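Posting this for the archive.
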Amino acid sequence: MKTTHLLYLHGFRSSPQSTKARLMAERMRREHPAVTWCCPQLPPSPAAAMTLIRELTADWPRESMAVIGSSLGGCYAARLATETGCARLVLINPAVHPSRDLAKYIGEQSHWHDPQQNFHFGPEHIDELRTIETGHLSHPERCLLIAAKGDEVLDWREMVARHPGARRRLVEGGDHALSDFESAHLGAVIAFLQPA
């Protein structure tokens, strides 16, 4: 079944202005205008982020909704997919141990796309992440995992180990931002979400 509702979840310190989010939004607007698109600015609190995500998708049809998550957004997306049994899940260099990896960022942080905008990331947020982190996906066959071996932030081997059974696109080299997303991966993501 083709996707009718699509949620994009950005990473830590990122925003809906991220390159991948903007590319996806433009492609969906141009080629799939009937699809409901949602890419919210996620709050620093993981618990608040999950509350927002659940509220935004509460009345979406589970059999035709899809979620894309990049980096920390991948952790949120995997949790939402586990809770909803959604039709499609795309994980782009997803964080699988964010409570461990983000512990070094406790304190004042700034947003990538608006460095003048600061937020506080506290120890309580690490505790919230622990409750959100998922084990293996209940329907890995519905997941497309894109993992760059050159990711300078997260370990691609942990991504693969956390999501056995998912369809995989392992990128030789690459980086955490997946800078070649438009030229090398965007088409494959669209095809996965909107099969011919």
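The first strand starts at residue 5 and ends at 9. DSSP finds seven helices and eight strands in the chain.
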